[in-house]
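in:
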């Protein structure tokens, strides 16, 4: 069986289908770029899905489940189980919305923050290393294009919860290349 490392991707129009298939390339790039960091996350005793949930909640406390599911790229039913586990472990808490008691918002606890905050500098450093081959302008353009594609899919209703959750806005690239 051929491994991903053995594939010789090329932009040649006569190349095999997958070499030029955008959706494959996006998925392969995401997998390749995040795999090394996921090893580091696991080495710290944190599950990757836990990292994703808690990292989102640090900057966006009080997200509803539908909104959080969009950020962590999980089906809402699967995320519900993860939230229950995180709540049992004291890493998140649920609170009823003050204006609509039917809505439940999710917040990271101090314990959850202590678990995930040390990984944030590592995530930023990894992202810088992973994209070091890009110029600042290339990175900014790539992020802008990806945001545009995501917004278009949400507007078309092709992403679950379209129109209900947070929308990606314009990308601001800071001097260190981070967004």
């Amino acid at each position: 069986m051929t491994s991903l490392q053995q594939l010789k991707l090329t932009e040649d129009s006569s190349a095999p289908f997958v070499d030029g298939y955008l959706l494959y390339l996006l998925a392969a790039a995401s997998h390749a770029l995040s795999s090394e960091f996921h090893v580091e996350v696991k080495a710290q005793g944190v599950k990757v899905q836990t990292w994703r949930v808690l990292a989102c909640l640090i900057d966006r406390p009080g997200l509803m489940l539908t909104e959080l599911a969009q950020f962590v790229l999980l089906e809402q039913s699967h995320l519900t189980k993860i939230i229950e586990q995180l709540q049992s472990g004291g890493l998140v808490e649920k609170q009823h919305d003050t204006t609509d008691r039917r809505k439940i918002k999710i917040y990271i606890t101090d314990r959850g923050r202590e678990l995930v905050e040390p990984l944030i500098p590592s995530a930023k450093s990894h992202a810088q290393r992973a994209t070091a081959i890009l110029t600042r302008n290339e990175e900014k353009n790539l992020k802008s294009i990806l945001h545009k594609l995501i917004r278009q899919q949400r507007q078309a209703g092709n992403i679950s919860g379209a129109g209900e959750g947070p929308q990606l806005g314009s990308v601001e690239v800071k001097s260190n290349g981070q967004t």
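note: The longest strand covers residues 92-96.
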